[in-house]
Hints:
By secondary structure, this protein is an alpha/beta fold. Helix 20 (470-475) links the parallel strand 18 (458-462) and strand 19.
Amino acid sequence: MEKKRIYKFGNGHAEGRADMRNLLGGKGANLAEMNLIGVPVPPGFTITTEVCTEYNQHGKEAVVELIKKDVEEAIAHVEELMGSKFGDKENPLLVSVRSGARVSMPGMMDTVLNLGLNDEVVEGIARKSGNERFAWDSYRRFVQMYGDVVLGMKPKSKDDIDPFEEIMEKKKAEKGITLDTEFTVDDLKDLVVLFKAAVKECTGKDFPTSSWEQLWGAICAVFDSWMNERAITYRQMYQIPEEWGTAVNVQAMVFGNMGNTSATGVAFTRDASTGEDLFNGEYLINAQGEDVVAGIRTPQQITTEGSRRWAKLQGISEEDRASKYPSLEEAMPECAAQLIETQQKLEDYFKDMQDLEFTIQDNKLWLLQTRNGKRTGAAMVKIAMDLYRDGEIDDKTVLKRMEANKLDELLHPVFAKEALQQAKVIAKGLPASPGAATGKIVFFADDAEAWAEKRKKVVLVRIETSPEDLRGMTVAQGILTARGGMTSHAAVVARGMGKCCVSGAGDIKVDYKARTIEMSGKVYKEGDWISLNGSTGEVYEGQVATVDPELSGDFAAIMDICEKYTKMDVRTNADTPKDAAIARKFGAKGIGLCRTEHMFFEGERIKAMREMILAKDTAGRKEALKKLLPMQRSDFEGIFEAMDGLGVTIRLLDPPLHEFVPHQLATQKELADEMGMTLEEVKLACDALEEFNPMLGHRGCRLGNTYPEITEMQARAIIEAALNMKAKGIIVHPEIMVPLVGIVTELKMQADIIHATAKKVFEEKGDTIEYKVGTMIEVPRAAVTADEIAECADFFSFGTNDLTQMTFGYSRDDAGKFLKIYREKGILKNDPFQILDQKGVGALIKMATEKGRSVKPQIKLGICGEHGGEPSSVQFCNSLGLNYVSCSPFRVPIARVAAAQAAVEQA
Ligand code: ADP
Ligand code: MG
Ligand code: MG
């Protein structure tokens, strides 16, 4: 049988289904499903994502040839259901041509509306509808969209303006009007002529009059849009594979621009910011498509309750609101009631918060899209738990719904109550995406990027945002816009990113040229500090102080579900009792990596450390180490106490000694005086420590094997601390970890020192404690000879930072220069320091796991690199059956969710 490339839908029938999103794209699959469950949807058809792949492989002509007959047949199907004819002068059918990938990519790809119009068809539409203005409004929109999307006239950079917008602005100025709705029929006719002239001038060709030529142009343009720069950037950001492709949906037009009995809007079945079960959304009378989100006119609220809340935030009186900005419930009660019924039906059916597009044509409601709505981390948690408590979904589905990385948003600080009371409110907008943001004002996305690179915190201030601003939005602390509602680009994207956003702050005056913003009568410049409260819509002057968030309720309930399903423990990387305590609060089951070197930098300690390093002989070193011992011991005591009852893995000294010695003359002189050496001697000693490749130099267990007295001191500090805590009734499980082992003998010699030291301490104290000795697996040779190494290790901990560096031969500190280019060129899909390279580094981990267990089946295995908190890497660790992953304290909840998800998926 021939491959099916086109799926039709309409009038309660459909060839596709919701679960065919890979083939039909999210939009197409749900359009089909809505038909099947009796929701009114204009008829149409979906060209599959596979055709997009064929298009990219075989080119335009071949693909048009391939699907020509099917498209003609599918158009005939739509004609039959609509009782009209494509390209006909008397009774014309108009269609939209819409993109739609597997996952939604808001605003990234292109859509053309009102397709099928020409100078004759427009008259037919006018006669048939009895509404000349509507016909010409649709025509001018069509020429503009087609020109932008298909004929490539869309501005390429932020400084260019859309040629069509320019013409419209000129016309408005001439007429002394401000709104599109104020154009007369003659104005619109003029605009069409001017638009077509602009097309001719820009492309050298006449605007196509044949409906079929228009249709093929639009279909190909949608396929092309999959490979446009915006879409590519977006895919890179969200790791969406290029192979997925986009589907094309061709659908009969319904018109929200037919006059005052028509409207268009977007809605959410629940609050996408907070997760509250509140149906909400925005609409505009006599409008089409993107008008609502484009921020040209102020959109109105669908529910009266929402409308009142909105008016209050905007400082609009109830009287003004009801007359100028009535809700849909007030303006079109019957359609509103039907919409409310439909949204409930869709949510009950899909069992998740839906984001809807609808259009009302002459008092009849049509749905144009439904999808699982983008939401903040807080809303993600609340909605899933609410649906679970209502018995709509089970706890495994709750887990599946968690985007692990989004939990991060819940862990971050919020404004301190006292600080807020004193903060000066300088503007107010809509609470578009919650959070507390403080940063310096910037006006352009590329500035935001440049400043952020210099570690400056910025707030991106725009009149409104567009997809070009995406990268800038990513690096900003928060986003403030002058225009646009709760469903504007800025609002939707910010919520998706979990970024604080205040939108539609109408009273602020943004001047891009002067790079200033006027708020409450005061001018603020680029670089001035402001703070945003994304939960109230308030904008404050300066920096407002923050505090830690409350983590109980739904968050705790999600963590309980994780606990029920997870197979791996999540530990934390913590060097201080404070970090250890935070991680424990987040549910860490121990410390997977406690680095000792940080302890040597504080205050007086660095001096003792330097004395140790610069000592001329073993006796001198031992003298200095004696000073360090009590300091280390008390650090370990604090950590053991914080981790009462849980395992604590302590790594012996790891970095090259050169990092500890002074590099400035003044400090070298000071050190010389203290140690009774000459400056010259100190300088020489410091210089001698200099290495060409410190990362591959005298570090890790190479230190302990050349200066065994260091290992001896550290082992003593650990065992003494453990015994001291034991005496206080605290349960301690010390695990001593030897770094950078590549040869089994390296580990064996270190283990011998540790065991001998422990024995000595036990005798001295008259008490004993169980402890483990293990190693990091972070040198490729260690992974390859893991069976030998396992003989003298109680545990392995995969140090994937070093293992990645050494497997790739990339220095992490220098890789920034080429990694970006490598990713752009597709040499690397991801940054291997962020996302574990499963094929290469992962294969070494797998080998070490198998070899280790073949010798010692009970050997404890874990991972302690940055990757331990990255969901796809956590999943990989689960598949290898590791005992635990360890990550920084704030990533513990993320890793817990990822680990539980992996366990559920594997079962
Ligand atoms: P996006 O994926 O960017 O949301 P869409 O394909 O959904 O793009 O369409 C853009 C806008 O045009 C939406 O507001 C949508 O509701 C509207 N639209 C699309 N097709 C039709 C149609 N057949 N009739 C009326 N409006 C439509
Ligand atoms: Mg509801
Ligand atoms: Mg859409």
